[in-house]
Amino acid sequence: MKREHMSHDNFSSSGSCSSSTKPQMWTCDADDELFAVLGYSVKPSDMADVAQKIEHLEQVMCSVEKDGLSQLASDTTHYNPSDLSSWLESMISGLNTTPDFDSGVNSSAQMVVDSDFGSDLTAIPGKAVYPNPREKPPSPAKKLKLSAPETESSESIVMVDSQENGIRLVHSLMACAEAVQKENFKLAEALVKNIGFLAVSQAGAMRKVATYFAEALARRIYRLYPTNQDSAFTDLLQMHFYETCPYLKFAHFTANQAILESFAGRDRVHVVDFSMKQGMQWPPLLQALALRPGGPPRFRLTAVGPPSTDNTDQLQEIGRKLGQLAESINVEFEYRGLVANSLADLNAALLDRREGETVAVNSIFDLHPLLARPGAIEAVLRVVTEVKPAIFTVVEQEANHNGSVFSDRFTEALHYYSTLFDSLESCGGGSDEDRVMSEIYLGRQICNVVACDGADRVERHETLAQWRRRLGAAGFEAVHIGSNAHKQVSMLLELFGGGDGYRVEEKHGCLMLGWHTRPLFATSAWRLAS
Amino acid sequence: MVRLRAVGEHGREDKNTSKTFCINDNIDVLIEILKRLDDKSIGVAACVCRLWCALTRNDALWEHLCFRQLSPPPEGVRTVVAALGGYRRLYTVCVKPVLTRLRKMKSGGEMWTRHEVELSLSLFCVDYYERLFLAGGGGGGGRIAGDAPPSSLMFLCKAVNV
């Protein structure tokens, strides 16, 4: 691999160089950094040799394919992939028995190096091929199965997918977070570049998660903070998230069940919704109320939402549609939309509490952003108590992404979003477009947790236990979410077909939905403590 | 699957024996028979002739199909379901996937449980609301992908990887 210029800042954790001040890395005989990242021990002095042998090997394999000596081109085994030089020797000596070895340039396979290695390196002109084991090798000490690269494809195969790299990736991410925590930005920068290469070598959920975290770390290091999120676009992304996986449906169905039960026997009800978005939560509640024994109550909905960026009145539109639905199922419906920049701007008078009404307040992922400003959460909880709700349903992410230490936050977030992305990979709902949008939705959250700080960091998730303390301090007590909700949600999850991945747990009367052993979202219901 | 054959009126030239039974003359009997079929057979029956096609579109037939196994059919459901799009749509969009998928998981039990009914109705309502959104068009509210069908219930259509 030719190196035009090696920045002296780039030293890798595996390099044996004493200090980073030497301008030329190859004067000290350390393992090549990029190969080391991928698990191969190649000295810079061997580099030209290795490159030549790789070209050699490529030509031989091409010509072997053409001759139909396919058994040589297919599974070959070798030992100790970390010693690249001797491996190539063994490969070439093994193949050297073929007489028609063509040493000329084989122009039919024009290789293009797939990934961007950054400004420090340029690809060797011609064909540079990296070994591509099709299966994951169990460990480097065991045999490495190598199948022939597809000669008809004109892209280079760069992936070295091994468990080693996965572990290395996670360690690099943690190390980078530590470096950022200690404000050692030079080290962090080098690590972020490493992470970029490692992330590319992974597949599936791990790759996506690593890419998002790497980007967020880079933003933090280079201070390229993300601009203000457009709320309409976030709503759209959330719709796709609603369709792809059951988490939002879980939230809506459990909250609705709690609200429905608290409305039993009442004939005038009022729902205050902090999380209107597209209003997907309310049709099932309206339908359940329409069909309840004794007939539907008079239903009033007050929706609180942010100001819309385009000229349309989003809240009113949605209210109109819900009204249409309510009318067709014969439920008396009254609607009011309140536009507020932040929930903390509300006061109880605006919510217009009327005599004889049973009130329910609903918040889905809308309490945690309030933690970004001091005093906001207390103000909102005070407003809620003033409305005197029969039930206050709260759905939040079950994770602590609000710790004061950056590296702890980072680690928590890494585990949380890895699990979430894993579940996205496995569950089947929605189209491909939906899935991509859901990933972007989650990616934005990752960016916010890692890259932002202060008032900009709004994704301040806290665990159920933490919310319990806060709500307890504000004068609320927990209401048990009944078994009906649990059964309904279990059925819903069976329909989603994530295999056995999704788990519904009940904890102190609250329901938590998780993927395998990790709870991800928690629904809780509260009322004023007597 | 039950096989039915409509006996043509002009089968025989015997005009004397007007005892030839034609099912199309006895629609109430026909409906009774159709009520007992499963969904696939109803589909096949709809292809027989125009009369049968019209009869199979009758929502009452599908209502019977949906709630056949629930001993007292829930009250008031009819108006709601009619408003949200009818029993035939309820069956195709919600009931059938829910039943087939959940039956696979459970070993026995032919009866619908109350929860399954409620869940189907809730999902049906969500479906109606999404269609409302698309009908509302691109201007204001709604999703940007106006030409895609409501996909919130797509998970019901996808093959389950159990």
TrEMBL record, chain A:
Its lineage reads: Eukaryota, Viridiplantae, Streptophyta, Embryophyta, Tracheophyta
Q: Where is this region: SAW?
A: 451-527
UniProt keyword list: Gibberellin signaling pathway, Nucleus, Transcription, Transcription regulation, Ubl conjugation
Where are the residues of the annotated region Disordered?
1-23, 124-150
- What Pfam families does this protein map onto? DELLA (PF12041), GRAS (PF03514)
Per the record, which residues fall in region Leucine repeat II (LRII)?
A: 317-349
Reported function: Transcriptional regulator that acts as a repressor of the gibberellin (GA) signaling pathway. Probably acts by participating in large multiprotein complexes that repress transcription of GA-inducible genes.
Gene name of the encoded protein: GAI1
PANTHER family noted in UniProt: OSJNBA0084A10.13 PROTEIN-RELATED
- Pinpoint the Transcriptional factor DELLA N-terminal domain residues: 32-99
Main subcellular location: nucleus
> Can you name this protein?
DELLA protein
Record-level GO BP terms? gibberellic acid mediated signaling pathway
Q: Which domain of life is it from?
A: Eukaryota
Please list where the region (VHIID) is annotated.
238-303
The residue numbers the entry assigns to motif VHIID are 269-273
Taxonomic source organism: Salvia divinorum (Maria pastora)
State where the protein is found. Nucleus
Q: Does the keyword Ubl conjugation apply?
A: yes
For this chain the motif LXXLL motif maps to: 367-371
Tell me the protein family, please: Belongs to the GRAS family. DELLA subfamily.
Q: What is known of its domains?
A: The DELLA motif is required for its GA-induced degradation.
* GO CC term (a single one): nucleus
From TrEMBL, chain B:
Q: Which domain of life is it from?
A: Eukaryota
* Gene3D superfamilies given in the database record: 1.20.1280.50
SMART domains documented for this protein = FBOX (SM00256)
Family matches, as InterPro entries: F-box-like_dom_sf (IPR036047), F-box_dom (IPR001810), SNE/GID2 (IPR044184)
Q: What residues does the F-box domain cover?
A: 27-65
Q: What is this protein called?
A: F-box domain-containing protein
Source organism (scientific name): Salvia divinorum (Maria pastora)
Q: What is the lineage of its organism?
A: Eukaryota, Viridiplantae, Streptophyta, Embryophyta, Tracheophyta
